[in-house]
Structures are given as C-alpha cells and as structure tokens.
From TrEMBL:
SUPFAM superfamilies assigned to the protein according to its UniProt record, in alphabetical order: Clavaminate synthase-like
Any GO BP annotation: small molecule biosynthetic process
Keywords, ordered alphabetically: Iron, Metal-binding, Oxidoreductase
InterPro entries according to UniProt: DIOX_N (IPR026992), IPNS-like_FE2OG_OXY (IPR044861), IPNS-like_sf (IPR027443), Iron_ascorbate_oxido_reductase (IPR050231), Oxoglu/Fe-dep_dioxygenase_dom (IPR005123)
Domain (Fe2OG dioxygenase): residue spans on this chain: 192-304
Name the record gives this protein: Fe2OG dioxygenase domain-containing protein
Similarity-based family: Belongs to the iron/ascorbate-dependent oxidoreductase family.
Source organism of this protein record: Capronia coronata CBS 617.96
GO terms of molecular function: metal ion binding; oxidoreductase activity
Family matches, as Pfam families: 2OG-FeII_Oxy, DIOX_N
Length: 342
C-alpha cells in the first residue's frame, strides 16, 4: 500500500507565487451575512489568482466519498474484458470506460513495447466517464448485470446528484463574490450536464519515472468546463503550474475537495478567472519497493447546461469591445473540445 504521505498542509499551498487556500464552505452555507460575503469573496479571489482552492466542510460527508472510492476500486478490479465491454464510444456522449491497458503499462515485458510507450509519454491511467442520467440516445455504460455492479450503479447515480447539488451551491458563492444575486447561475446549473470521472492510476515501476523525466500519470492540461470538483486519495501526485512556470504539488488535504476553474468559466469571466494547467506525476514519497503505489481520484466536471449561451459575464468588461470572445453554446464548446482530445 501507499507509504505515509507528508503531513497535510491545513493552510493549503503557498509556493512560487501559487496560492491554493483552504476555504471552509460551511461559513458560506450556514454563516452569518458577513461570513457568507467574505467566504464568497475569498472563493472568487482564489479563482481569480490561481484558479484553484481546497474546499472543506463542503456538505458532502467523508463517508460518502469513502463509499465512492471503495466502489471505484471494485469497478477497476473487474477483468479487462468486462470493462472493455463498457468502452467509451463518442465525444457527443462522453460516457464509458477509457482504457490505457494497464497490462500494457505495468506488465509490458517486450523492450520495444516499453520503449514505444515511454517515447509517447502516455497517461498511465484508466477512467470511467459517467454522464447525466436520462439523456436521450446517450445512456451511461453501467456494469449493472450483476449484484456488485447494481450496487456500484446505485452509488454512482446518487453521487452524481450529490455533486450536482454542490456545483449549484458553489456557483451561488461565485455569484455572491461577483456581486450578482445569489441565484444568478442557477439557470445554468439546474440541468446538471456534468460528468463524473472515476480515475485509477495503476501501480508503476519507479524506473518509469527515473528513466524518463517526461513520464506522467496524467499529462498537463486545463479542464474544459466551468468547475471541477476533484476528490483525491492520500497518495499524492497532483501538481499545479505556478505563475513562475514551475510545477507545485497540490498535496492532498484530508476531507477537502480540490476545486478548480475550467476553460469555459475562464472564457465566461472574460479571463478574470484562471483555468490553470495541472498534471499528475509520481507520488512525493519514495516507496521501499520498486513500485509506486496505485492512486485513485474522482473528478466531477461541471458545465453550464448544454443549451445555454455563454458570453462575457456582466462586470467583466467595460464596453463590448473589451469582450475577448464571441458568445458560444456550452454543449457545442464541450463537444468540440472532447472531439479534439480522443
Ligand atoms: O487525478 C487527478 O488528481 C487529476 C485528474 C485531472 O486533472 C483530470 O482528470 O482532469
Ligand atoms: Fe484536470
């Protein structure tokens, strides 16, 4: 199992000009008017400065998150052919299992194959993408043909809705921070066109990283949508690009959610909010064995409802000439970005 991670920085990250503060969301949800205002301001401020924050007391219980991680591990433990039968098929649907054959990565023995994998710097991960239920023509790819699969399906359906609700609350805080009516974004969040991604990074030979300084568990990228809720286990490896162009570790802080802004929110905010590059590399601790431990994370990608038009928010420009981007339909934007990735 994982070696002991370094002590959690309860104060978040402050390095190379990058701040990722820990923000107590209960002060927004249940605090008096002045703590509500100051919490909303602090959240917006973090999104404007680094595009990242850790949210504590989010309202999602640690037990709920633990159950999701247990179910996720059970899913990825299924035989490869069962997972392949649930394969991701097309960007318009964006649902299903995305393999990077872990056999290929962790059990490759053919030197030519290993060389090819290293040269191409693949993501050493497998994922399951779960979209909103009830979308005509885009069913989720559930393993609900056996009892464990039925339980998994139930847990993930419920978690999708739990996270949808947090997205609504989170955008209410951003609205208050921006001086809008609290429910300003509700008409963009109520449909819940969001995607739940379960991620599994299989254990990896230490030599993969030693032999190739470019090796990654997940390559550097920014997220596409509005906001990402990222639940990570204690293993570590997430890094965020600092203003000084260095990679800074976003060390796991227990019982918090890493929340970052995506490209569509940056665009919507006329670039007053940052969508910052991040990646996943090997954990900070050197294990005694020759393998880095496996890592699990769960990302919930929030988007403005797909039928909404996204154009510069009020207050983010002085005159129309200051609007950096034309208006765009949320769903089309996302589909275009996904089509370019897969
Ligand atoms: O696994 C992680 O910690 C990050 C994953 C991520 O950034 C993504 O899937 O977009
Ligand atoms: Fe990401």
């Amino acid at each position: 199992m994982a070696s002991t991670p370094p002590p959690a920085p309860a104060t978040g990250v402050e390095e190379d000009g990058l701040s990722i503060p820990v923000i107590d969301f209960s002060l927004f949800l249940h605090g008096d008017e002045s703590s509500k205002q100051s919490t909303a301001k602090a959240m917006l401020n973090a999104f404007q400065k680094s595009g990242f924050l850790y949210l504590s007391n989010s309202g999602i219980s640690p037990e709920t998150v633990k159950t999701v991680f247990i179910q996720s591990a059970k899913f990825f433990d299924r035989p490869e052919e069962e997972k392949d039968a649930l394969a991701w098929d097309r960007p318009e649907s964006n649902r299903g299992y995305v393999a990077f054959g872990r056999e290929k990565v962790t059990q490759a023995t053919d030197p030519e194959e290993i060389k090819r994998l290293r040269a191409s710097n693949p993501d050493y991960k497998e994922t399951l993408e779960i979209g909103r239920e009830g979308v005509e023509g885009s069913p989720n790819h559930w393993p609900d043909y056996d009892e464990p699969g039925k339980e998994f399906t139930k847990v993930m359906k419920a978690f999708h809705l739990t996270c949808k609700n947090l997205h609504i609350q989170f955008m209410r805080a951003i609205a208050v921070g921006m001086g809008f009516p609290e429910t300003f974004f509700d008409e963009y969040t109520k449909g819940g066109d969001n995607n739940l991604r379960l991620l599994h990074y299989p254990q990896l030979l230490k030599s993969v990283f030693k032999d190739n300084t470019e090796a990654v568990r997940a390559g550097h990228h920014s997220d596409y949508g509005s906001v990402t809720l990222l639940f990570q286990d204690a293993v570590g490896g997430l890094e965020v690009k600092s203003p000084q162009n260095t990679w800074v570790r976003a060390t796991p802080v227990p019982d918090t959610i890493v929340i970052n802004a995506g490209d569509l929110l940056a665009r919507w905010s006329n670039d007053t909010i940052k969508s910052t590059n991040h990646r996943v590399v090997q954990p900070p601790c050197e294990p005694e064995s020759d393998m880095y431990p496996e890592r699990y994370s769960v990302a919930y990608f929030c988007n403005p409802d797909f039928d909404k038009l996204i154009e510069a928010l009020p207050g983010t420009y002085a005159t129309d000439a200051d609007k950096k981007y034309p208006a765009i339909n949320s769903g089309n934007y996302l589909t275009q970005r996904l089509a370019a990735t897969y």
